[in-house]
TrEMBL record:
This protein's record includes keyword Protein biosynthesis: no
Segments forming domain Thioredoxin: 33-176
Superkingdom as given in the UniProt entry: Bacteria
Signal peptide boundaries: 1-21
Key words of the record: Signal
Organism taxonomic ancestry: Bacteria, Pseudomonadati, Thermodesulfobacteriota, Desulfovibrionia, Desulfovibrionales
Protein known as: Peroxiredoxin
Single annotated GO MF: oxidoreductase activity
Protein biosynthesis listed as a keyword: no
CDD domains (alphabetical): TlpA_like_family
Species: Desulfomicrobium norvegicum (strain DSM 1741 / NCIMB 8310)
Amino acid sequence: MPTRIIFTFLFLSLFAGSALAMEATDSAASHPLPVGSTMPDLLLRGELNPKHLGHLGLKGPAPRHLSEIKAKTVILVAFSMYCPHCQREAPALNELNALIASRDLSDDVKLIGVGIGNSDFEVQVFRDKYAITFPLFSDPDFRVNKEIGEVGTPFFYVLALNPAKKEVRVAKTLLGRMKSAETFLAQALKACDGGK
């Protein structure tokens, strides 16, 4: 009996250690969409200000479909306001958005967030607390999270949009925090042929 307890403790310690190493909240139910697959045309809900609507090329309030975003590359980050890793990642996400703008990529590359399990109110709290500079959508009923594979948080999907075919392709994924915003942007652009 004591041996079983020791092995259980060691197994749980290893599992917890790996989750901390990748700096993400994850579950066994997670099944992310693989690179090269087609992303469903997600229905994005939530309250966006006119500046963010204009930035995304959207007219009128949400809900809007992912394919309506005017960009060649979309970086979608699944987050939760309750995820400590997402909270620590917030400044790096703002840095990533600033890098996109400073490199004159804002017309072709868009960064958006989806608050997994978060209401409009919770998303607004996260937006305000971390002075988020990019559009955030809500997913209070986990509908989007189910479509994207019940991923942990933070989870990044780099998506290549093909408006002619009305297709969104998964170009890169990442569970956990970025090593650096600059490195991640370079990898994202490479995965999507420069975002152009």
